[in-house]
């Protein structure tokens, strides 16, 4: 993975956080976490570390409340993405349940 992709990877994780999507966050962390720490500049790695600390708290909260409990149904991406054919079924089901 090239270093110029690191800011986009971190931005994708930050988007997961703002949407409350910690299932996808886990996938990003597993797939790209080491790339960020190995190829990111100092400021990016510091931001990544802060994100990880917030994610730990959120995952603990979801363990208590149930998977997906922190998903923000009002986030614009969580409203629009279920309309996209490739988007995971779990969000489409969430949107239908809220209707």
Walk me through the topology.
Elements: H1 6-19, H2 22-39, H3 42-65, H4 76-80, H5 89-98
Helix pairs in contact: 1-2, 1-3, 2-3
Q: What report would you give on this structure?
A:
- The protein has one domain.
- It is 72% helix and 0% strand.
- The protein has 99 residues and is mostly helical.
- The termini are far apart.
- The longest helix has 24 residues, at 42-65.
- It has five helices and no strands.
Summarize the structure.
The chain is mostly helical and 99 residues long. The protein contains five helices and no strands.
- Morphology call: globular
Count of domain modules? 1
Helix-strand makeup class = mainly alpha
Count helical runs. Answer: 5
> Which stretches of 5+ consecutive residues score pLDDT under 50?
91-95
- Listing every helix as H and every strand as E from the N terminus to the C terminus, the arrangement reads HHHHH
Note the gap between the termini.
41 Å
Please state the CA-atom Rg, rounded to the nearest Å: 14 Å
Residue-averaged pLDDT: 86
Number of strands: 0
**Biggest β-sheet, characterized?**
none
Helix content: over 70%
Strand content: under 5%
């Amino acid at each position: 993975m090239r270093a110029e992709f690191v800011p986009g990877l971190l931005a994708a994780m930050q988007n997961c956080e703002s949407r409350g999507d910690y299932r996808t966050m886990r996938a990003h962390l597993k797939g790209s976490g080491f790339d960020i720490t190995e190829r990111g500049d100092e400021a990016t790695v510091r931001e990544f570390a802060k994100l990880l600390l917030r994610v730990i708290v959120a995952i603990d909260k979801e363990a208590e409340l149930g998977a997906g409990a922190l998903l923000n149904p009002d986030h614009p991406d969580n409203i629009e993405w279920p309309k996209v054919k490739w988007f995971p079924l779990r969000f489409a089901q969430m949107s239908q349940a809220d209707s």
